[in-house]
Amino acid sequence: MRAAFIAGKEKIEVRDTEVPSPDAGEVLVRVRACGICGSDLHFYHGVFPANPNVSPGHEFAGEVVELGEGVGGFEPGQGVVIEPIRRCQECAFCRSGRYHLCPKHMLLGTFAPGGLAEHVSVPACTLYPLPEDLDFELGALVEPLAVAVHGVHLVDLTVGERVLVFGSGTIGLFSIIAAKAAGAGEVVATYRHDHQGEAALAAGASRVIRDSDVAGLEKQGIDVAIETIGGSAPTLAQALGAVRPGGRISVLGLFPGGVQLGGLALILKEVTVVGGITYCRPGLRSDFDVAIGILQSDPERARMVITHRFPLDEATQAFATAADKGTKSIKVQVQA
After folding, report:
1. Pick from 103, 144, 219, 260: CA 20 to 30 A from residue 90's CA?
2. Could you give the CA distance from residue 332 to residue 59 in angstroms, rounded to a whole number?
3. Is 42 known to be catalytic?
4. How do residues 266-283 score in pLDDT, each as one tens digit?
């Protein structure tokens, strides 16, 4: 089969490798669509060390090829979405539905083979049937949408609340969609590039502001801020300034280094700040279940996030496009 690998800083190789065989409890999946995530770009740019022998990619959907020993409930040819977290299924976190905190958890595409390959073998417990009314490229959007759903549920967003989303990349746009689905009233989104501001409005934002103009939000009664930018941006301090007393901040952006946050303001305003990592099953429905339902309710609003599509053999161009906002890229997918 063909598979893509990060062979060095900003270097992608697509090469032939063996088709994996599913172990007991696993399913072999033929990947049909896989998105390039911001965290994939961190590995691509060398911010984090990439394993040159592990295919990246954790936003993917495909079809079942082969069932490993002991696996039932799926059939060859069936469309599936993959929740890309390997976990032990035995610890207290796994048993309580918080498997994203399992001490043995592993995100596919980092230390275990991911979806930028023609085939990948995954634990059966990570599979969700792909509804017939969703195609594979929409299926590959479930994972990033579930990240946004997770961020919304961490701050217990309630109907009518005013939300400020920092950033209008993929997770920012899906945070707008997830917040609206949860009943948010006004949703304000920040953007850096014009095409991102346009996309935020298309996603359902009430209004958009440039990221350099957030200083005027302090007196607008923001109940919840959702940070999706990370890096070296001053967005956490801006979020603390923007939310009302007793407000909440959901942190979804990846900050590789230290972040300055005004401790006095944090105390005086009694603001809750919570970090979010991937997704889980907080109750009867998992974040993936909720994300699938949101996609089914308005598939085309979500589809507009996809700006570029490439075949696997053009993975080098796919990563270069995702890394260059001059291409007006938001979500770049590799499809087969």
Report:
1. 144
2. 11
3. yes
4. 999 999 999 999 999 999
